[in-house]
Amino acid sequence: MKKLIAGNWKMNGSLAANEALMGALRAGLSGPARDVAVCVPAPYLAQVGALAGDVIALGAQDVSAHEQGAYTGEVSAAMLRELGVRYAIVGHSERRQYHAESDAVVALKAQRALACGITPIVCVGETLAERETGDTENVVKRQLAAVIHANGHCISEVVVAYEPVWAIGTGKTATPQQAQQVHAVLRAQLHAASAHSDRIRILYGGSMNAGNAAELMTQPDIDGGLIGGASLKPEDFLKIIASAR
Ligand code: PGA
């Protein structure tokens, strides 16, 4: 399966910084063997879309669960699609935590994205407390089950990202074995839900960097990465991309 390396810029960037970062990425990218995307703040989608060329796909960090109308501040999937967006992160733990997004809302967001031809990158992951009480598998299965339930056979069109909350932005990465164990659980769940599960990519995210990416991505069920902090540093992001084979 072709790997996917997606950068998640979070709430970072400026017109000038984006231009420099995209210029460095385009100059350093070589080889067609994997897919690359950058998920950028909504106000920069048009700018980054124009800078991305056809080698880097454009991604959003969220999408509204509503189709259109009186939802001040929301951005619809149709609007994203008009700007050339190919991927949208849904259910990132920062949104689940700070914006109280439930499993049901996340599932609806995935549905809205799919309806507009955008591939949702569905994030699942346990907190440290949940890991310590042995609840990791139950939590990620519950989160993914909501998305499977709402999306039926379209589930084969999503990307899943396993992002243990305790590893995000902390410098603490899951070991390749810890990550693989959860990825295998997610793979089995997807397999039971779809005849086409073999084409669903499951990314790892959480302090993935130029030093640990290669080993993580040699695991059988890790099909790429969702990269936060390191995606803002062109040299590091390019190294991670190069290690995806
Ligand atoms: P990180 O973030 O790579 O900075 O840990 C990953 C993410 O939140 O998607």
How are strands sequenced across the largest beta sheet?
1-2-3-4-5-6-7-8
The count of DSSP E runs of length 2 or more, i.e. the number of strands, is 8
Beta-strand residue fraction = 15-25%
Cα separation of the termini = 9 Å
The CATH superfamily is known as Aldolase class I
In which range does the helix fraction lie? 40-55%
The distinct ligands, each listed once, are: 2-phosphoglycolic acid
Could you name the CATH topology?
A: TIM Barrel
Low-confidence stretches: none
Biggest β-sheet, characterized? 8 strands, parallel, barrel
Return the domain count: 1
* Secondary-structure class: alpha/beta
| Overall spatial form | globular
Rg computed from alpha carbons, rounded to a whole number of angstroms: 17 Å
Overall mean pLDDT: 96
CATH class: Alpha Beta
Structure commentary:
- This protein has 245 residues and is of the alpha/beta class.
- It has one domain: Aldolase class I (TIM Barrel, Alpha-Beta Barrel).
- Helix content is 41%, strand content 15%.
- The chain is built from 10 helices and 8 strands.
- It has an 8-stranded parallel beta barrel, surrounded by 5 helices.
- Strand 2, helix 2 and strand 3 form a beta-alpha-beta unit.
- The longest helix has 18 residues.
- The termini are close together.
- The mean pLDDT is 96.
- It binds 2-phosphoglycolic acid.
- 2-phosphoglycolic acid binds next to strand 8.
Can you give keywords for this protein?
245 residues, eight-stranded parallel beta barrel, 8 strands, binds 2-phosphoglycolic acid
